[in-house]
Amino acid sequence: MKKEIGLRIKAAREAAGLKLQQLSDLTGGQLSVSRISNFEQGLREPDAQTVMLLATKLGKTPCFLMFGSQSSNEISAPVPDMYRTSTTYQIVDQYSAAPPETQTAVDLLLAPLSERKLLSGTPVESVMTALEGLAMDGLQTIKNGGEKPTTSDLVKRKIG
């Protein structure tokens, strides 16, 4: 998975017409040229916070950098139908129909999962199972217009 993420980071950087140094500068020096290069070569895997930073600076979504798609219903790694539940389809449909600011909020809610290594090196079906409970709570709260839960509250509640 490191290699695929790295290739997408490099492709997005090149598509934006940026050199490694320019991307490093865009991050305000948070990411050095060598660190970005290590990501692109698949030598290191970026954590969720780094994926969010790179996605923002490259004009992409975190979903694109992680899975190769701008929306979660086009994840490049296929999910076998036997692992797709009605809840999974509902999550994907709600995410796809949501306005960009809601999608960004959901991306932020899900970021801690990759920090806990649920998104790195595990089968997609395991990730989908882990996402169902967390995403449904977050989406339902946002949809109902209630007080938006913090990421840490949701993570503690679901995988804590």
Automatic annotation (TrEMBL):
Pfam families: HTH_3. GO terms for molecular function: DNA binding. InterPro entries: Cro/C1-type_HTH (IPR001387), Lambda_DNA-bd_dom_sf (IPR010982). Signal peptide: none annotated. PROSITE patterns: HTH_CROC1. Residues 9-65 form the HTH cro/C1-type domain. This is Helix-turn-helix transcriptional regulator.
